[in-house]
Amino acid sequence: MSDIFRIAIVGSGPAGLSAASRAAQLGLSHILLEKTSHLSDTIYKYQKGKHVMATPSQLVLRSDLDFAAGKRELVLDTWDVQTEKNGVTVRKEAEVKKIEGTGDPIAGSIQKIVVRARDGTSETREIQRYAPPYRLTLSDGSEVMADSVILAIGTQGNPNLMRVPGGDLSHVQYQLDDPAEYNDEHIFVIGGGDAGIENALGLAADIAQGNSVSLVNRSAEFSTAKDANVKALMAARDAGRITIYTECSTQTVAAGEITLDTRDGEVKSRCDRIIARMGSAPPRAFVEESGIEFTSGDRLAFPKLSPVFETTAPGIFVIGALAGYPLIKHCMNQGHDVVEFVNGNTSLKPADEPILEAKFRDLPGKRSVDEWLELLRSNVSILEGMSPLQMREFMLDSNARFYRKGDTIFSRNDPGSSLFAIASGSVLVQVDPTNPGITVPIETGSIFGEVGLISGRRRGATIVAAEDAICVEVSRTAALKLQSSVPAARRAITRISIERQLLQMFGSGLTKDDVAEVVETAEVLQVKAGQSVITEGEMGEDIFVIRTGSMVVEKKIGGKPVFLSYLPAGSYVGEMALISGGKRTATVKAAIKSEVIQLQGATFRTLLGKKPMLLEKARRDMAARQDVNAFIEAKKDSFSGVVDMYSSVATFLVEQGVGEATDVLLIDENLCVGCDNCEKACADSHEGLSRLDREAGRTYAHLHVPTSCRHCEHPHCMADCPPNAIHRGPDGEVFIDETCIGCGNCQRNCPYGVIRMDAKPPKKPSLLNWLLFGMGPGPGEPPKKWSYANADPSVEKAKKAIKCDMCSGIEGGPACVRACPTGAAIRVAPEEFLTVARLERGDA
Which stretches make up the Cyclic nucleotide-binding domain (predicted)? Predict the structure, then answer.
């Protein structure tokens, strides 16, 4: 039997190297076990020449190894030299296959674990945990004994796989070593985290290589990536070196081809190689067999850890990515600190302690950082699945705030997309804008502000503190990161948002207890454009609530689909078959990529039976839809041509983006005389720059859709605005404020071409001076020649983004509509315009 080391460190990444160097500096007997022939395998596998970042910048580095942002090769060389200089005992090509205690059995520690293989199979095993010292069995059969074990193995060896048809083909890989190895290939990088972005940038860095590089990101935002990486990615896109697909997923993979599911439908593209960088999961089987418990059964859950990184197996510690900390500086600090703890230094505070102390300084009550973190974690439902260490990182991007009774936390129509969680006390939601006395309480542990988080819209209600309260304000970025890294938090936010939407939509005196069973059985479905959730003639009784996006309703008349109506987010369908029985009477399909909440028919029927007011509301909604069906049936012969025309026009409008609009400008060309008063009025109302182009855009029959902002429900332009200059106003208008830096991202992201980049022209003489003396260019946007001639050469005119703001703040409403002499220009909400009932009034 070999000597017993004081510490055995498994894994020589940043965390393991830092821990080993601290042990060497303290003179502790130790051994660093690395399964490869080199140190820091994860960074060693970074692509050649990769720039390694040193974030968070505000965090002090606490390690016996130096680390600063720089090239991969420089970082590795520095660590190799300093590891040897520090006298670290290293054993390479030493893969640990098993860790088991050799001391006394730990009472009550027999546990069953489910071991899952990569092929999807699993088996249940029963293990008994034993106290230290620990025996580490290596792959060559040799053994190492240690009083304490520090696991710094990371998660990169257990990548998330592409589980789509063709995902196992030979041209799919999960690692990129050297981008220079690939030339003249069509390469798709799957994943919008740091690894995916850096791989894509590396492959597209040298134009001479001739690669066509595309990056696929599941969401619209790159919430888990560093800002510097996102900016570099956008710059590469703007330079034409990378194609970016957002809100997109891989549907199938075939030799030489990839099929993507995008928000606009299916896209097939040539593909010679796929680099899949979709994150990784902890090597759960190995860790659990060592006697370590996890926070939950989720595949992405992390081990249970104490504030000093100790697991449920006494003497085994976990640090680095396996603890939920992927950033290098965090890992190195943990490596240093855990060895100090093992050596008896219990007074050492984490390096982020001063930052967190400042965040909690203004809260009432004298608590330590650890006590505040535990209070927040244990009291807030969405944070319960986080470890104390994860809580520390989470709070670096969030803020804890104290509100006295009666304080307004935010007001109706305030901008904001952050999420709030109540750690103590309660708040009141003022649901009626005309009567602040009508309120709904939200208690400790719950959240509010989720509508702004999901939709990006302004606040829909005023929230005041019902009593003294402590709330955590979670930035949008931190909330998205929380949902992606903590499955329990994502489920909790989804459940609460569903509950709130149902209560708001159905009303009828319902409480959250009334809808609890409906919410519990509800499922959120992603529906791509054109996909049906209800098909005419089929059996079914489930209810579908439109969470985001929009739907269109069609009914077959004479064998042809006829457009009946348009349903925006917040609507529901499916009640007719549930209440009256029988087959579905119409088809409901997505106008754009949407999310729907599927409510089980049987559960909802039970709720209807308990709540007569809700049943009455559902019957009224059903009667209105039956009236539309009856109207179409009655008019299908006498008005068949009108019905066909209306259906075609409605379909055309949906194809032009009306399906995701909240307000759209339409021009009736039967009435339009081409005077351009609409454009001139727009320019004169907005410092000489018109926000619309009347002649541009598409026309069907007599209906023209000019180039003007649709004020989308989920604006594409907001997806990548560095100064966060794009907002939604109180009337739904999407506008750009004065902080715009002219980067042009919004213009590139808008699929409808309604944003322009331009500089404000010189101020024109007044209309009276033009009329009386002929001074200036007259009404409307001045000609470029006049602007150049009259520009002040001492003032540089920077270009900024220009788009329709619905004449927000201008008395009388949109100038384009007011200036139209014939009434040809109208601004409409699609749900009001796109309904077959307008046929009865002759409006089609």
Answer: 382-500, 506-625
